[in-house]
Amino acid sequence: MAIRTEKCSIRDIGRKKRDGKKQVWLTAYDYFTAKYLDASGVDGLLVGDSLNMVFYGKPDTLSLTLEQSLYHTEAVARAARRAVVIGDMPFLTYQQSISTAVTNAGRYLKEAGAQGVKLEGGIEMAATVKRLVEVGIPVMGHIGLTPQSIHRFGGYRVQGRNSVSRDYLLDSAQSLQNSGAFAIVLEAMKPDIAGEITKLLTIPTIGIGAGKNVDGQIMVISDIMGLDESFDAKFVRKYFDLAGKIREVGEKFVSDVVSGDYPSKDETY
Ligand code: KIV
Question: Of 74, 120, 187, 196, which residue is the catalytic one?
Fold first, then answer.
């Protein structure tokens, strides 16, 4: 596969849907992971608020701060020569008022070098998305299972299971598009509703746990790398046992130091 070498733009993301091409997104939180994923050919890197769980070991995304998110976004943006980089706005950094949302979202572009932001929510966030786009901040929407609302949902539950929830998802997708969002993440929903939304929209839908009927897929990098051995979800394909490998390397180093095998002569100045 030929991988383009020039920087992708937000417009390229939209063009992929018009050209009928699937797009691939992954999360990244640090410089080197971002560097190698960028070289692997992904279209976009999201500095997801999953950062709070998979990097900081917190139980959910809620306590992530804007400063933490900006710090990691800056590292990822510095590494990404080609992929679009999007910062994921933490809980309560964009919900209180449109003016707070503009100030905080703007920092991802001004200070962290991202090309846009992602925020959770549907029809209720439409006016905020519209204003951000008007001032020049590209926005990726996110509907379905929006983890910042886990307490309202009563846990991590598949969405769109009844007609009220389906109507909300369809109306939300349409209103986010009308407000100028450049793409929408569809999380944890049945493939039929994801497919209906994908057909309805001219902007790309990027699925996570939403089946095949979408314009692209996004995954949390640590999930597909197998970093958290206690985490298992139906939609995750684990490509590697990173947890096992880290333990193995740790054990080997402990054994080599304790036995006196390390450092050898060649490893000594
Ligand atoms: O924070 C995150 O990782 C996300 C997912 C959609 C990938 O929002």
Answer: 187
